[in-house]
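Tutorial handout. Part one gives the primary structure; part two gives the three-dimensional structure as tokens.
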Amino acid sequence: MSEHYYTEKPASGIREKEFTETIRNKTLSFVSVSGVFAFGSRIDKVSRLLLENFIPSGKSCLDIGCGYGAIGLFCKALHPQIVLTMTDINERAVAYAVKNAERNKLYAKVLKSDLYDELNDCLFWDIVTNPPISAGKSVVTRLIQEAKSHLHPGGALWLTAFHNKGGSTYKKIMNESFGNVEDVTKKGGMRVYKSILHSSI
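Part two.
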């Protein structure tokens, strides 16, 4: 099987690209790296759509499957009051998420974790993700279903995807898991979905 960005220990050679990105009048500087989603000279447009529409539910946020840290670090930069945690199974992703946090002087706890495995009983007000769709439906389903155990009541799971490239399926799973889901926004086939953890769930 060819290597993809959900690989724990990427074996591909390291190539880096440095770039700056501005979202909602906040500019950050990043180094993206090969073997990590999404290698390139700009933040992918699906992640950007989430960041343009994210409003914190409280004072803690988990960026799960963080890659080199773009979503989580922009969440922190745009909403400095949040306590940010970022996780990824990919060792190279974790290293570059740390590097990019330091580069932008933003504090984040960064952990190597297969989804929620290393988070124990940690609870968050928001979980944000551009999910690892290439890892397969079972991985993303687990990400959605287990989010409930890591959210405060009233907290929210935010997931961004192309609606016709897996998003519609994951929207349905979110609704089945949480009993609710909304389209926060839609643009060019992309959507941001949000489910809120109600205390009765």
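Part three, for discussion. Residues 1-6 have pLDDT under 50 and may be disordered. The helical segments are 45-53, 70-78, 91-103, 137-147, 163-178.
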